[in-house]
Amino acid sequence: MSEERNIWKVIAASSAGTMIEWYDFYIFGSLAAIISTQFFPPGNPTANFLKTLATFAVGFAVRPFGAIFFGRIGDLVGRKFAFLVTLLIMGGSTAAIGFLPGYQKLGIVAPIILVLLRLLQGLALGGEYGGAAVYVAEHAPDGRRGFYTSFIQTTATLGLFISLIVILITRAIVGEEAFKVWGWRIPFLMSIVLVGMSYYVRLRLRESPLFTRLKDAGNASKAPLRDSFGTWSSWKVFFLVLFGATAGQAVVWYTGQFYALFFLQTVLKVPIGTAYLIVAVALLLGAPLFVVFGSLSDRIGRKGIMMTGNLLAAISYYPIYHTMKAYSSPVNTVMLTLMVFIQVVFVTMVYGPIAAFLVESFPAKIRYTSMSLPYHFGNGWFGGFLPLISTAVVAATGNIYAGLIYPIAVALLTFIVGSIFLKESHTNRIWDEVGGQ
After folding, report:
1. What is the DSSP string of 268-323?
2. b/e per residue 229-252 (b: at least 16 CB within 10 A)
3. Contact 345, 286 (CB under 8 A)
């Protein structure tokens, strides 16, 4: 009974911290339309919005480097230390954006500093997710790993949801005009309090018992990077996990949540507050499904659920976005929410089981490093650049549905590669590496 209580304490502390880091990271995307007017010279609104999306994408581009750096620390020193450091870096960078003067005061220096802060956020997030997922997984018993790690999987969506709610509440309190001028800074500054609380809770946690046992036995890796990527066979596993799992998961995640929000705001011209509310409600309704599919993957396997989610997304996006267009003028909030919710269901299918799958795909001594890199390449590059790529394609072609070509192609690629080459992992017993539980 005490072990059961302990794992829920671990999940609560890990999930809260990770959710706050996602909140910090995604405030920027949620406020992209306003930030584009604050940190870039006045002129072409579309060009400035694309510049803001590019700055948003910069944070994703460096995530693999954060995965390498903090993954190595996590495999050498410990899981807990690594995700304590990432939390502080993320929180400090986010708060700094809230204090940063705009283009009118700093000129070209403002967007340069903004990009540097996004780089720090990306590096921090590159180390955070792997640490939290591994930490929870290495507390969980074999056979229940999908269920327990699925709570970590809810954090990205809940972080986005909370960012939208905070923005809506702040807008309502300070008013529309004041929010555009200075009120948008409040959600960034709130990070100081949230990170402080989370850091205190995480500081009281102990190191992962599996890693502790591994280190005490002298079996921890002394060169995680070499052990993870020093052979061709290791790189084959990396590319298989990237193209057979994380790339598709990434584009489905970012299409169903971020691109849906951008599409509502910038293409369909749905009022900003209404667009936030539509996505927030869809996220709230869909969040429990992460746990449903994570738990289901313990019984029937991870691979089938993830591949089904990729395929359903690829064949459904065009009709979904055509339906969104049909119900945007006049705005039918219920139908638009339903269309976003369906996309969130696909997100939960590809994302709910993937933490357990990644943990089970790599040995304990190099797990943090090995799983973090393909995850953050997939989510940082394939997913993080999706809003920029898709928005740019729409702007270049004039076809409002052309932006869907990219996520459909990547999701289909993952479905094909994963279905043919990916091995099922849910029967892997990671505790056997240290002599059992």
Report:
1. S---HHHHHHHHHHHHHHHTHHHHHHHHHHHHH-HHHHHHHHHHHHHHHHHHHHHH
2. beeeeeeebbebbbbbbbbbbbbb
3. yes
Q: Cα–Cα–Cα angle for 56, 57, 61, nearest 5°? A: 135
pLDDT digits (tens, 9 = 90+) for 46-95: 677 777 777 777 777 888 888 888 878 878 777 777 878 888 888 888 88
Cα–Cα dist 40/96, whole Å: 17
Residue partners of 284: CB distance under 8 A and separation at least 6: 161
Q: 356, 267, 248, 386: which is closest to 309 by C-alpha?
A: 248
How confident is the model over 224-241, as pLDDT tens digits?
778 778 888 889 988 999
Which of 260-269 are b and which e, b meaning 16 or more Cβ less than 10 Å from the residue's Cβ? Answer: bbbbbbbbbe
Reduced to 3 states, what is the DSSP secondary structure of residue 331? strand
CB-hemisphere CA count at 13 Å for 406?
22
364 close to 215: Cβ distance less than 8 angstroms: no
Q: Tell me if the domain spanning 2-220+231-434 has CATH number 1.20.1510.10.
A: no
Of 143, 160, 129, the closest CA to residue 287 belongs to 160
User: For 148-167, what is each residue's pLDDT tens digit?
Assistant: 889 888 887 788 788 888 88
Neighbours of 321 (CB within 10 A): 22
Question: DSSP character for 51?
Answer: H
436 vs 327: CA distance, rounded Å: 55
Answer whether 112's CB lies under 8 Å from 139's CB: no
From residue 160, how far is each of 27, 30, 232, 413 by CA, in Å?
Answer: 7, 8, 38, 27
Helix residue spans in 301-399 (DSSP H)? 302-326, 333-351, 354-360, 367-377, 386-397
pLDDT at 132: 77
